[in-house]
């Protein structure tokens, strides 16, 4: 049975278990249930790509050719059932897409597909037909699924922010032109020689999005074992090192289980670009108390655009009080005679929960132990997709001058 473009592509680049899925697909009942679970629109997309050579050539004149055939859904299902041995690729695409976020798929699709195609796959609930988009992306270029795979990781993971210490003068050659597959592979080889732990840092690809450059690296970490049938296979867990560079290479967001190792690789890359030793330092998330007070007051009085405060947790006399209501201002006024003005003494606030883009986001507040005039503010980024995160941070930064960072992993790892 054909595996396109290759078994290595699916199992290594996309981490999709070909062998076990092939075993499922060869089961007639599983295969039949899968074909019947596919919607009419999805079936039309698959039918077009699998049988287009047999169709009228006029179909190719349309931006959305699968909408212009006269074959019924029942006929398509019957025809595809009879040529199931050519459908394993589609089955792999379907299984691959089960754990991928809609926003990651749509963002990649918007960057390469005609707008008419995107709009034709918008469903009544304002969601997109994920499977159809993935089928189309795969048949246009299988490697587009790597972009989905990578961007899905960006959407779902937390990043720590760093800035370049003593940034050098900008070079004439852009950083985007500097970073290439060959250059990164060379840097990773040097890094592995320095680490001397017998592990290979594997370059997995680039992703360019909204003036950011993402570099994806996979490296073994943590001894583990898996059960394969009745066999025990010993190996190592993969650690994905995702480096999110600003275009000028002066700032970076880093996602990895080993921050120190990820920083070393990041420093290597930027040092070669600037042709001098460079290092990134942690971005201090510190905001003046006065700015936080202004922001919280605006939230309580419902004057922050597109942000609706619905929960506030604060401490009073060593007791924590949580208000969960659409009218927090009224309750704070009632409590003020006994607990004091929370909006004035914002150092008492533990967290605030707000609704942004119809999603509930938690903002955590932590007073600086060394300087009581500053407060650190972090937010739960996992609930938002990449664009929503950027919009959320920009709104607070541009309006109130407050930098909020994600609840990233502890830097001590």
TrEMBL record:
> Which superkingdom is the protein from?
Bacteria
Name this protein carries in UniProt: Uncharacterized protein
